UniProtKB/TrEMBL annotation:
This is non-specific serine/threonine protein kinase. It is an enzyme of class 2 (transferase). PANTHER family: SERINE/THREONINE-PROTEIN KINASE. PROSITE patterns: PROTEIN_KINASE_ATP, PROTEIN_KINASE_DOM. ATP binds at residue 49. Its EC number is 2.7.11.1. It catalyses: L-seryl-[protein] + ATP = O-phospho-L-seryl-[protein] + ADP + H(+); L-threonyl-[protein] + ATP = O-phospho-L-threonyl-[protein] + ADP + H(+). It comes from the Eukaryota. Pfam families: Pkinase. Keywords: ATP-binding, Calcium, Kinase, Metal-binding, Nucleotide-binding, Repeat, Serine/threonine-protein kinase, Transferase. The keyword Metal-binding applies. GO terms for molecular function: ATP binding; metal ion binding; protein serine/threonine kinase activity.
């Protein structure tokens, strides 16, 4: 039996807050927020997308978890890296690399000539 990183998608037995300190809010959306955080041990900066589970149907949550497992397996310089994910009673926490530079849509808009 082969075990991959994606098999450990959601760390339900561990709490996000036990491993990361939140520094500030980077953005907010309809389904949650994105926070800048720092790993307590390694001091690595990261971003965490906090999704409130109450905003989703059960099937939608299952699709999100499936998408996380797929993206965790990808390794490409143009794809955001997912480091790990946590779940508690209220939220999903998706920890990713921290990207600087603003919104992707704004950057695309600047580069396109209409």
């Amino acid at each position: 039996m082969n075990i991959s990183r994606a098999d450990f998608v959601l760390k339900k037995e561990m709490k996000f807050q036990d491993y990361y300190d939140v520094v500030c809010t980077v953005g907010r959306g309809a389904f949650g927020s994105v926070e800048k955080c720092i790993h307590k041990t390694t001091k690595r900066e990261a971003a965490v997308k906090v999704l409130k589970k109450s905003n989703f149907k059960l099937k939608e949550l299952e699709l999100i978890v499936n998408e996380i497992s797929i993206i965790k397996e990808l390794d490409h310089p143009n794809i955001l890296k997912i480091y790990e994910a946590y779940e508690d009673e209220e939220s999903l926490y998706i920890v990713t690399e921290l990207i600087h530079g603003g919104e992707l849509f704004d950057e695309i808009s600047k580069r396109l000539n209409f």
